[in-house]
Design brief:
Number of helices: 18
Strand content: 25-35%
Mean pLDDT: 89
Number of strands: 49
CATH topology of the largest domain: Rossmann fold
Structural class: alpha+beta
CATH architecture of the largest domain: 3-Layer(aba) Sandwich
């Protein structure tokens, strides 16, 4: 059974034969989530302020348990692959993908297809398949796509360069600006005007970052993942940090063997340097995987996203690589969409450049303009924040900007033409954050009828969401190719643009917001709901409205995506006024502290106080779902109390709500266990004034082993330091322990936990005095009460009462 659509050759393609059967390839089999509708609902719920699940993020393991393929599905797909001559690797952490390394011949036989070598317009070479991959009918329904079978879709870096002398930044941009953030060295200040570029302090000033720096915020404690399909030269990054006086922690994470060595195209340097120039205290993880290439296809682009999201080490992800939706294809886009939903569920923010070919994002074929309307993946994905491009004329503050559009008609000039990407998606319906946007933002869904994206009766996703400077003639000053290892290309300080630069600007802003006091340490997660909500509430305060220009790159669309007041499909909501916007992104943050895993004993009194912090200081009320029977929550105080009536493990969700309707929640496990069992308890020797206490303790079935035992004696008996204490295992082995005696109480900490122990405390470690029965006969008639407290290896405490009738 075929999975996915029948492939078609790109326009103008010429077949140049087959791919050699011995060609080594690496592909990834992506699987359908267990319940796609439930996954979409949960991703929306954790991103929606009014939801009881708001910011109740999951770990990758919890995601896999709830939404990943089942163990049976994974086993069946792996068995099917092996039966067809392939060797599948280990499934990903989300239980939604299986890697396969094989030769082209093995893949052709396993998937019943052939590989073709193609010549494309513009002298490009590519690999394509003759058919969609075939799977056994019993597993085909579990498979979403096989990623990496062709190189027709090849993500490209979304940067543009300006040649020295092609223009200059306005005079107001020549002086550097004291922002409280990183400041450029003299060499950078001198180079910037000649390179038609702004230094990072000027970008920070234009977009209102100063207020964040003055509040002491440098994104400390936040990790940002940088998505790259090329290498970078660490010496370039080091030179940039030395100039700006930053000391950001930067680590490379190779995926599928990495992206090779060398300085790359400048994309990685642009992304990393822009990020650390604006968020200097963030921890930076640069994920580098191999791009698709004409020699052999591969799933490197998908696997790099998968590694970032499944490792879940970053709160923010910045992406400056993309491909137009039509070239990307439905199957690969669907596989990405599942990953991006997972990122939202885990509380990760993804920002992506929207493309450098305006509203005609598929670019050119051998120099001929491609006039078909198209937007860029992944910026067009519904769980991603797409970043468009502007021309930053003056830095203000507030800045003067218009939509970036260096039309193709100016291709003879000494710079690469380009325009900020934007328009209507051909794949995705309009997400809730756009459908529910404030009417004051002028986002009209009717401008994007659903027929254009296969959702008749609905509307299509509009791109971009936001924007930032992208014009290479008013670009960003970076340090790249400092060793001049790439002859004929700029070396050292140079200006660069493209929507590539806008993505890390917005990633830095979100990282700064995540670290700010206003957010109380809670990650913003999927940012679009917060962005559109902030724009609806305080647009003029939080955004710079871009109202001039359009992104009709080829001049064939009649300027239909022109800028205007509020939202438009050329600049989105506009560019940021960062300090004000960051506060409003967090304004409805209500953080509910997770009390962690709880353990209690059945029929034992429980008291647990919940805590929540509200960014506005508003009063908070509480409710809980899934409490063990016998426990209840006081809404006004957040205290859970009562006596649990039955054993078991319960998944408890607590929800806090403030007077403005903002909610915060946390989920945790609460195990109610049976008490440890006491047997063979005796108290002897009272009449002879040489008391001996002995008893056997056993952990309840399924409970953790015992680790600490505390005994409180009745009146008339007390403990004293000395010999006479033994703890013995059932096999007679004396266990090692540390004992501490304080009057009527004795605490014994076992060095090795045990399921069952016998405790013996004999004279002189235990002594008797006034208040005891005067004779053995009286002792038999009077039961004495002891209190035991037992702590298990999971730190669960059990309090037990025990009545012992003394014997002579």
């Amino acid at each position: 059974m075929r999975v996915g659509r029948e492939p078609s050759l790109p326009p103008g393609a010429t077949i140049r034969g087959g791919l050699p059967a011995t060609t080594r390839m690496h592909v990834t089999v992506s699987l359908n989530p267990r319940d796609p509708a439930a996954l979409a609902d949960y991703a929306l719920a954790v991103s929606t302020v009014s939801s009881s699940l708001y910011r109740d993020y999951l770990t990758p393991r919890e995601f896999a348990q709830r939404f990943g393929a089942s163990t049976a599905q994974l086993r069946a797909v792996r068995a099917s692959l092996r039966a067809h001559g392939l060797t599948p690797g280990h499934a990903s952490a989300n239980a939604l993908s299986i890697p396969v390394s094989a030769t082209a011949g093995q893949l052709e036989r396993a998937f019943s297809l052939s590989f073709l070598k193609l010549a494309l317009p513009g002298r490009r070479r590519a690999i394509a398949t003759t058919a969609a991959p075939s799977f056994d009918s019993d597993v085909a329904g579990s498979v979403q796509a096989v990623v990496g079978l062709n190189t027709v879709s090849q993500p490209r870096p979304l940067l543009r360069r300006a040649a020295p002398g092609s223009g200059s930044a306005p005079a107001l941009a020549r002086a550097h600006v004291i922002t409280g953030g990183p400041q450029p060295c003299a060499a950078a200040q001198h180079a910037a005007p000649n390179q038609s570029a702004y230094t990072m302090d000027q970008i920070a000033s234009a977009y209102g970052f100063s207020g964040l720096y003055q509040a002491g915020d440098g994104a400390g404690g936040v990790t940002v993942a940088v998505y790259e399909l090329e290498p970078d030269n660490p010496s370039d990054i080091a030179a940039y940090q030395a100039c700006y006086g930053t000391h950001a922690s930067i680590s490379s994470v190779p995926v599928d063997g990495g992206a090779g060595r060398g300085p790359g195209s400048g994309e990685a340097a642009l992304d990393i340097e822009t990020l650390i120039g604006l968020a200097p205290n963030a921890r930076v993880l640069v994920y580098q995987g191999p791009n698709s290439n004409s020699g052999a296809p591969g799933s490197g682009p998908y696997d790099t996203f998968s590694a970032i999201i499944n490792q879940d080490r970053a709160q923010v992800i910045t992406v400056s690589w993309g491909e137009c939706e039509q070239a990307q294809g439905v199957a690969s886009a669907d596989a990405e969409d599942t990953l991006f939903e997972q990122a939202a569920v885990q509380g990760e923010s993804i920002v992506a450049a929207s493309g450098d070919n305006g509203s005609e994002d598929c670019g050119t074929n051998g120099g001929a303009p491609q006039t078909q309307l198209a937007v860029d993946d992944p910026a067009s994905q519904p769980w991603v924040t797409g970043v468009g491009g502007t021309t930053l004329t003056t830095i203000g503050p507030r800045p003067t900007e218009q939509v970036w559009n260096s039309k193709l008609s100016r291709a003879g000039d000494q710079f690469q033409p380009g325009a900020g990407g934007g328009g209507r998606s051909s794949l995705w319906p309009m997400p809730t954050n756009q459908l529910d946007a404030s009417p004051a933002l002028n986002l009209d869904p009717a401008n994007s009828p659903g027929a254009g994206c296969g959702h008749a009766g609905g509307f299509c996703r509009q791109v971009p969401d936001v924007a930032a400077d992208a014009d290479p003639t008013t670009g960003y000053l970076i340090y790249w190719n400092g060793s001049a290892s790439l002859p004929g290309l700029p070396a050292g300080w140079q200006g660069i643009g493209g929507t590539s630069a806008g993505a890390p600007v917005w990633a830095a802003l979100i990282a700064l917001a995540d670290a700010s006091r206003a957010c109380h340490g809670a990650a913003i997660g999927f940012a679009n709901p917060a962005l559109y909500r902030a724009a609806g509430n305080a647009y003029a305060n939080d955004f710079n409205d871009v109202i001039a220009g359009d992104n009709d790159f080829t001049g064939t669309g009649g300027g239909q995506f022109a800028a205007g007041p509020g939202y438009d499909m050329a600049s989105g909501l506009g560019t940021p006024n960062a300090a004000a916007l960051a506060a409003d992104l967090c304004a409805n943050t209500l953080r509910t502290m997770n009390p962690g895993t709880q353990r209690s004993t059945v029929r034992t009194t429980v008291s647990l106080r919940l805590n929540a912090t509200d960014a506005r200081g508003a009063s908070v009320s509480y409710r809980a779902l899934g409490l063990p029977a016998g426990l209840s929550l006081r809404a006004s105080s957040g205290r859970i109390s009562g006596t649990p009536r039955r054993t078991g493990t319960f998944r408890v969700t607590v929800i806090a709500r403030d007077a403005d309707g903002a909610t915060g929640s946390a989920s945790f496990s609460w195990t109610i266990g049976a008490a440890p069992r006491v047997s063979r308890a005796s108290l002897t020797g009272l009449a002879s004034h040489r008391p001996t206490l002995s008893l056997t303790l056993a952990a309840s079935r399924g409970a953790p082993a015992l680790s600490t035992i505390s005994v409180k004696l009745p009146r008339g008996l007390w403990f004293s330091a000395g010999d006479g204490i033994t703890v013995v295992a059932p096999d007679g082995r004396r266990l090692e322990f540390a004992a501490r005696a304080l009057g009527a109480g004795l605490t014994i900490a076992l060095r090795d936990t045990a399921e069952r122990v016998r405790l013996v405390v004999a004279y002189p470690a235990i002594r008797g005095g006034a208040g005891l029965p005067a004779s053995a006969g009286q002792a038999k008639e009077r039961a004495l009460g002891l209190t035991l407290r037992v702590v298990d290896a999971d730190m669960g405490s059990r309090r037990l009462g025990l009545e012992i009738t003394p014997t002579p």
